[in-house]
Write the structure tokens for this entry.
Amino acid sequence: MTKATDLSRPRPRAGVMDIEAYVPGKSGAHGAVKVHKLSSNENPLGSSPKVVEAVREVAGRLEFYPDGAATRLREAIGEAHGLNPANIVCSNGSDEVLGLLAQTYLSPGDEAIFTEHGFLVYKIYIQAAGAVPVSVKETDERANVDAILAAVTPNTKIVFLANPNNPTGTYLPFEEIRRLHAGLPKHVLLVLDAAYAEYVRRNDYEAGVELVGNSQNVVMTRTFSKIHGLGGMRIGWMYGPGHIVDAINRMRGPFNVSAAAIEAGVAALKDRAHVDRTIAHNEQWLAWLSQELTGLGLRVTPSVGNFVLIHFPADPKHSAERADAWLAERGYILRRVAAYGFPNALRMTVGTEEANRGVVASLAAFLKS
Ligand SMILES: *Cc1c(COP(=O)(O)O)cnc(C)c1O
């Protein structure tokens, strides 16, 4: 036990040891079976071959520091999305920019809101900034705008919302986002985390570009980890009003995006065909998985992302924990989501055809066992 007066070694500041470290999806299984990692929403088609080429090329000049402003990447993002590069900040995965937003806009004692089954990284960064995490109830596994607005106090500084959300896969139509924004005080920052935006096939969905452009208190964060299959490269970005971009640029590390990441991102954006293939694959297999799993008698939360949340029966013989072990033995690594408030569910990334068919067949056998 260390006491506040213990001067025998360095001590983290108050609150640090209250943070529960993020537990990433498992990546391996024991034994000789072929492993299908379906635990981190990675792209089953991998990354574009053009990215691999670009990274090889960078490998020949690693002694040089990257462009600290990631200008080529911001310009490529701006061109692909029709945005002004001056309003973009690139980051070491979107996780980094989420953390920077918390560090920049939260002081100890401030409150920041996220939702009941929201992405856990928000809570970690809120606590890391010394602020108070405020979790707001969802309705039917979907964010509830009225509940969020009711939770706003004079201390609230940020609302973090993943749209679509991970691990539920549910989304809020843009009318709801507008209503949320309209109800927030102007000094409260609304962070729209659109990590899965490219996968959504719904007419009433928008990632948030227009709202960012028309207000002073909204940012949108995006990632190359999902649609572009570049989780290992760590590339994310934020689109926001100039005053927020300016503040984040002061807070970030001067070379927070590596030379390889910059070139990988530029190359990924050029390969539109790879993105289209990824979207088509996901559309086909998300529908197939949802239907087949429901056919097995399992409840599946309706998802617009590249993953499904599968709920298991109350019968302890067929719990999520047991299903997880059963699948892992057969090489299918899914994600436990108890920390997200789903003790009896598993999240499954939409995988290759082989993986998807394999999981459904294994779960059919599991439920009969
Ligand atoms: C995967 C994911 C991210 C992306 O994280 P990176 O740091 O860019 O890899 C962000 N938000 C949500 C909700 C996610 O699921």
Notes: The radius of gyration is 21 Å. Residues 41, 93-95, 119, 162, 166, 193, 195, 223, 225-226, 231, 236 surround pyridoxal-5'-phosphate (CB under 6 Å).
